[in-house]
Design brief:
189 residues, alpha+beta, elongated
C-alpha cells in the first residue's frame, strides 16, 4: 500500500518519491504515464525475519535535496539519491537547486528552477537518453555549454539557443529541445 509522497524537482521529468510501508521507499518516473518506471528504491528489510511486525516507511518526502522517510518502528531515514543509468548527476544537481522554505506535500508547491547551467545539462542528458538529438549534436551542445560556462559568453549561448530552435524542428523530442533552448537563452540574459 502506498502512502504519502511528493515530487522530486527534476526539470523536464515527472518523478515522485513514495513510502510503501513494508515495501520501503520507491522513486519512480511517470513522465510517460503509460510507461512508469522505478528508478531508485530503499528498503531496510523486515524488523524480524521470523514473524510479522508493523514497520516500514509510512511516508517519504523530497525536501531541499534529500529524501526524508519516516519509518514506523525504527525512526527517520535521510536519503540522498545517487546517479544511475536512469537519473544523472546533472539531473540531481538541477533538482537540488529548488529550495522551499516549508514543505506541505498536501499542496504540492509549484516547482521553479533558477537560471543555471545545471538545468541545461539536465535537459542535454535527457535528450541523450531519449535520442532526441543525434550524438554529434549532444556532444557539440555539451562542448558549447562548457565553454560558455567558463567564459560567460552571451553570444555563444544565444547562438546555441538559435541552433537548438532549429534542431527542435527535426527532433522526435522537440518539446525537450525547446525547453533546453529556453534554458540556454535564459543563461544568455
Amino acid at each position: 500500500m502506498a502512502h504519502n509522497g511528493n515530487l522530486i524537482p527534476v526539470p523536464g521529468r515527472d518523478i515522485m518519491v513514495q513510502g510503501w510501508y513494508q515495501g520501503g521507499v520507491s522513486v519512480f518516473d511517470f513522465t510517460d504515464p503509460a510507461h512508469p518506471a522505478e528508478i531508485a528504491y530503499f528498503d531496510r528489510g523486515p524488523m524480524d525475519s521470523t514473524k510479522l511486525e508493523m514497520a516500514g516507511s509510512w511516508s517519504a518526502y523530497w525536501y531541499n535535496g534529500y529524501i526524508y522517510s519516516t519509518e514506523i518502528a525504527r525512526g527517520l531515514d535521510v536519503l540522498e539519491l545517487q546517479p544511475n543509468a536512469l537519473l544523472t548527476q546533472n539531473e540531481l544537481d538541477a533538482a537540488k537547486l529548488v529550495k522551499v522554505s516549508y514543505q506541505n506535500v498536501q499542496d504540492q508547491q509549484r516547482l521553479t528552477w533558477p537560471t543555471s547551467f545545471a538545468v541545461a545539462r539536465a535537459y542535454v542528458d535527457q535528450l541523450e537518453r531519449s535520442k532526441g538529438l543525434p550524438a554529434d549534436r549532444i556532444g557539440a551542445t555539451r562542448t558549447m555549454l562548457a565553454s560558455a560556462e567558463r567564459t560567460t559568453s552571451r553570444r555563444a549561448l544565444t547562438s546555441l539557443a538559435t541552433q537548438l530552435d532549429q534542431d527542435a524542428t527535426r527532433s522526435r523530442d522537440a518539446k525537450r529541445v525547446l525547453a533546453l533552448a529556453a534554458a540556454v537563452r535564459a543563461l544568455a540574459r
